[in-house]
Design brief:
5 strands, about 160 residues, binds FE2/S2 (inorganic) cluster, alpha+beta, globular
Amino acid sequence: MFLTIELTINGQKKKLAAKPGQTLLSFLRELGYTGVKEGCGKGECGACTVLVDGQPVNACLYLAVQAQGKEILTIEGLAQQGRLHPLQEAFISESALQCGYCTPGMILTAKALLDKNPRASEEEIAHAIAGNLCRCTGYSKIIKAIKKAGEVMADNVRI
Ligand code: FES
Ligand code: FES
């Protein structure tokens, strides 16, 4: 049995069939949004983070049918017209990724923070990404990259 849900993914309205009990993580990956990563599968690592109506959500703990009527943003939807988001630019320029497995979830969590508060302090950034685990980088470059992206975003708003 399938349930039909209507939702928006990366700005595109869609009407799709989901299995009852299917996680948003599995649903999105089956649709080809493989930037959504599966780590622990139980809400502990943040690798599966997507934005649901602008809020970070662990897609492994969220049912696809709960996304009815909601707006989902995955890492695939972040670049606009071929231009990387300031967070993507900053992660590259600050060498804030190694294996990259945590990066989509980390960037989306950071986006939710910076959209509200682009001038977030390093402490606020560290607090915001506390649910996103990285096994490679030691976090300091990630925090630096998020801070730098916030400055770019704040300047863009001022223009
Ligand atoms: S895979 Fe969802 S929190 Fe780890
Ligand atoms: S860059 Fe490898 S887990 Fe974060």
